[in-house]
Amino acid sequence: MKPGLKTACLCWIFLASSSQAGVFEDDEARRAILDLRQRVENLRQSQAASDAALQKSLDGINKSQQIVRDSVSQEIQQESSRLQNALLQLQSQIDNLKQSLAEIRGEKDQLLREITLLKRGQNDSSSGLDERLVKIEQRIAKLEPVFFQLDGLEFQADITEKKDFELALASFKKGDFAGSIISFSAFLRKYPDSGFKQSAMFWLASAKYVKREYADAANQLKSFTGMNESHSKFPEALLTLANAQLELKQSQDAKKTLDELISKFPSSEAAAAGKERLSKLK
Questions:
Q1: Residue 198 and residue 235: Cα distance in Å, rounded?
Q2: What pLDDT score was predicted for residue 47?
Q3: Distance between CA atoms of 184 and 164, rounded to whole angstroms?
Q4: Checking DSSP bridges between strand 146-150 and strand 153-157, what pairing results, if any?
Q5: Beta carbons of 235 and 266 less than 8 angstroms apart
Q6: In 211-268, alpha helices (H)
Q7: DSSP secondary structure letter of residue 154
Q8: pLDDT per residue over 172-195, tens digit each?
Q9: Which of 1.25.40.10, 2.60.40.10, 3.30.70.20, 1.10.1040.10 would CATH assign to domain 145-281?
Q10: Where are the alpha helices (DSSP H) in the chain?
């Protein structure tokens, strides 16, 4: 074969090969594009399906939320209604209690008034009964005289006299000298002829001496010593009289009183004290 022809053949073969290669490459490209498009379409459809599923899920969630909200709102309304009803019932009960309390207070006040009236009536009855009992006791005492022995004396007296005397003496023994002065003075005014009179005078004078009422004490003791010398307090009365006279600066009268004490009751304790006092005066 001629060189020119050979060359021409080689060129044609190369061109043909190149043309076939180009066609082959275009087909692959088209297939690749189509495949890519298919993938894109698949992705789009998949995305669309996902979006639809997501939207459906969101719709379901929103619907569920709405159902929950509606349910909660309904429950809240129901609970609120129940609470309001309960509050109304409670307020009604409170009002009823207030009314009941007011009625109870009214009944209590009425009972207190009735109790007060009853107590007043009982006190009046008790007072009247006590007065009647006192009168009966006084009548019995007058009808049935009682004999007493006190401070070496025997005498007849009333029960009430004895009680009043003992009350006055109890005041003296407790150290209530002012009270005993009042009590003994009242006793002597009430029972001027009582068998307890001389003893009452002695204790009255003793209380006044303790209270430093020396003049009254001396006068009371002088009246005492002008009565029964058999009284067991006679020596003590003379000694107390002498002491009162000394406090009043009546030394001569005190000496006479002490001499009388020593001469009449030489063995008494009061006489021993009188001798000591008299020795100091001399």
A1: 13
A2: 76
A3: 9
A4: antiparallel
A5: no
A6: 214-225, 234-247, 251-264
A7: E
A8: 999 999 999 999 999 999 999 999
A9: 1.25.40.10
A10: 3-143, 159-173, 177-190, 197-210, 214-225, 234-247, 251-264, 269-281
